[in-house]
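Summary for the funding panel

The consortium committed to producing paired sequence-structure records for every protein in the target list. Below we show the first two records in order, beginning with the earlier of the two.
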Amino acid sequence: MRIGIVGAGFIGRAVAQIALAAGHEVMLSNSRGPQTMSSVLAGITGCQIGTAEQATQFADVVLLAIPYEHIPSLPPAWFEGKTVLDANNYYPDRDGHIAALDTFQTTTSRLLAEHLRGATVVKVFNAILAADLLTDTRPHGSSERRALPVAADDADAKALVVGLLDELGFDAVDAGSLDDSWRFERAKPAYCAPLDKAGLEIALAAAEREVELPLGSWRR
């Protein structure tokens, strides 16, 4: 599979590393252009680099791992017909306040899907620390395998991502539609918690829409 990554921060680089290790082709991009990427690629063997537009056109699947405040500036045409993995989280202090999110009227992924109307959005990779992506992978069937939540409206896209997670070393828990993805957004019990499938299912069920955990409580 060809995976184009928009965003070369911690999550983008970590996913690039485990995807390459699993045999996938990866193109990584950032907002400043390929000429700034030499230091970013240190230790990531076999990764291609390009502009954000080039990464989306290269990809079968696009991982979006940029601060949420930059979402409105993304040209929807770049993502037309693509499956987009949404690893974003909303931090008001960084992203500015968004009334619909502050009042729990929608989800970050629903807003993304409304912006990228020609794409198929899947919420995934937002509820794990970048360091854990590199250390918590386990073989299929391992009793210690970590699970990650996945939400999407499209069943085929969701199944594709569940399969990808398995190849990368994680189990998956179906968390419902994009409208249900609030259950593993920032400051919910499932957010960045190192859980197996059974534990993750419990954490997702325990989430309350208007209740947030203390900042940083999800760190080990």
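The next record, for a separate protein in the list, is shown here:
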Amino acid sequence: MKKKKEKQSKIKSLRTRILVGFGAVVLLIMLSSLFNILSLNDINKSMQTIMEQEMKLLINDEKLLTDMNKRTSLIRGYMAYNDEAYRIQFNTETKESIKLENKALELSDAAELKKLIDKKVAWGRLTDEALEAYDNGDPKKAQDIMNTQAQVLENELEKGFSDLAAKREDNIQKFGDDIMRKGKIIELLSYVVTILVALLSALVAYLTSRSITRPINLVMNHMQTIAGGDLSVEPLPVTTEDETGQLAAAMNMMQDILKQTMHKISEDSETLTAHSEELNQAAFEVKSGSEQVATTMQELATGTETQANTASSLSIVMGNFTKKVRDTNKSGDQISKTSQKVLEMTTEGSRLMESSNQQMQKIDSIVQDAVEKMAILDNQTKEISNLVSIIQTVADQTNLLALNAAIEAARAGEHGRGFAVVADEVRKLAEQVAVSIADITGFVTTIQAESKKVSDSLQNGYTEVEEGTSQINTTGQTFNKISQSVTSMVNEIQSISGNLESIAANSEIMNGSIEEIAAVSQESAAGVEETSAASQQISSSMEEVAGNSEHLAALAEDLSQMVNQFKL
């Protein structure tokens, strides 16, 4: 029992207990929110890496390959038809190609990419040599350069850029798989963390309210029993050192003092009744035997002196009794003050509940903001899908133009052979672009699906936060009920204090009567010595004594009835 008491007495204040309980709830909620925020940041970083680096690199690689094939077709068209428009467009595409190369180097410093760009620069120099030979009137040399050295580099570049694009696609696929895996883990952990937070919060609220209401209910029931007049009930067990423990200890002290006071009042009441009966009998005998005063003077003087001493002793006893009643009343006031302090602590608990509710609303806003950001991310992926659709349309049109060019080349016969080669290159390029666009579309669709799952998971977390807010409101209502119980207890204590004040007032009246009897007894003793000259005066005094004795007996009866209301 002693170990249990030491364990429970570590928290010596209701304020500390309430702050610890709600601090634990708020800490759990903050940890849950921090986990969700960190998880979202991780997903956002992965998405940002895909959108700002890998996807741009993939698109840029495709553009570099397309630009090289297009420039090849323009050179061959220029050499086949000697059309200056092909040469002008080739120069324009060359400038655009330089921009694409610089942009690729800005996005990535990979050695493989630098090597391909160096080869592309070398291929560009070969095309310049071919154009120079053609301009100098040597088309055969120009064709040899384009069909041998330039063609070899072109094939290597096509394979290199294709392999690099495939690697980019693999990286995007890996990032997508990683995002899917993290999304599933976050969804599972969010459910688990939310359930744990809800369960632990409910447990903390239940234990905190139970540790406060249980001892208060015990004290209130104990006080109702005492107010009903039963002082024989066992004292309350004191297991804590907080305000409820102090209230129970003060209640036990008040019960003990009140029990001792009632015992003393009962004993003094019986003594007072016996003495009042003796005094009444003595007064009657004095009155009836006034003719024999001379012969019984000595006996009467002795009896009167004894009566005076008894009245004086009784006056002292009543003085002590009145003092104990006042002490008991002070203890009742102390209990009332302690109860007021408990009421203030309960009010503080209600205020803390309101603060927790406000904190939950802030967390609610944070989760809602995360849901809105996921919606923005979903819109951005839709914009990417629109851009991919535009590229698909351009690729289809390019393929159609290549088909028309091949038909026209076939009609031209031998003169359209070079143009047929250009059309075939354009058709291959369009097919490659179509395949790449199909892959990109698949990746974007997967990202959109996973973004939708993450958004749904955040929405579920938002719903759980709302349920946590509802549980905290329920706990606040429980504290309001506790406040009402404490208020009822204060009223009971004030009722007991009023009864004690009434007992003290009656004790003051009784004490005055006893002092008056003592004074009369002393007057009777003096009258005995003067009986031979004032027997009539003695008879009158005895009548007064008899009247006071009857009044004293009535007061003793009233006091006895008041004491009998309590079960000792």
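Regarding this second record: The first helix runs from residue 2 to 8. Residues 1-9 have pLDDT under 50 and may be disordered.
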